[in-house]
Design goal:
Number of domains: 1
Number of strands: 11
Structural class: alpha+beta
Largest sheet: 6 strands, antiparallel
Strand content: 35-45%
Strand order of the largest sheet: 3-4-5-6-7-11
Order of helices and strands: EEHEEEEEHEEEE
Helix content: 10-25%
Shape: globular
Number of helices: 2
């Protein structure tokens, strides 16, 4: 499974190489339930779960077939890139974008406000 992304209209989308290697490697580890640690990103995995951390803050969780994401109160470009990597792995038509300093989540053609620090099940 490939997790490469391309940037189109300022948004990460499925299909090219816009994602940094650390993000694609972390997402691959998250999806496959493998341990990962590089620079500011860590993935911890158990028997049926995975957790992704950025700067020590939990930003994604997978338990069985349930995947949840949040920004951990840090709406940065790096947080958005990691979360978009996870969204692309599970739902290629979903992504987070920013407009007028506000984050939004586009899922299956529907756009909703991305509320800071709130878990969102994908």
């Amino acid at each position: 499974m490939s997790y490469d992304l391309a940037i189109r209209s300022g948004q990460l989308k499925q299909g090219g190489n816009g994602m940094r290697k650390i993000t694609s490697d972390a997402v691959e580890a998250f999806v496959n339930g493998e341990e990962f640690r590089r620079d500011n990103t860590k993935v911890h995995s158990g028997l049926s779960n995975s957790i992704m951390y950025l700067h020590g803050h939990m930003i994604a969780s997978k338990e069985g077939n349930t995947v949840k994401i949040k920004d951990a109160g840090r709406q940065t470009k790096t947080t958005k890139e990691r979360l978009n990597g996870i969204l692309d792995a599970y739902h290629g038509d979903s992504y987070i974008f920013q407009k007028d300093y506000q984050w939004y989540l586009s899922r299956h053609g529907e756009v909703e406000e991305f509320l800071s620090s709130k878990w969102i099940e994908i």
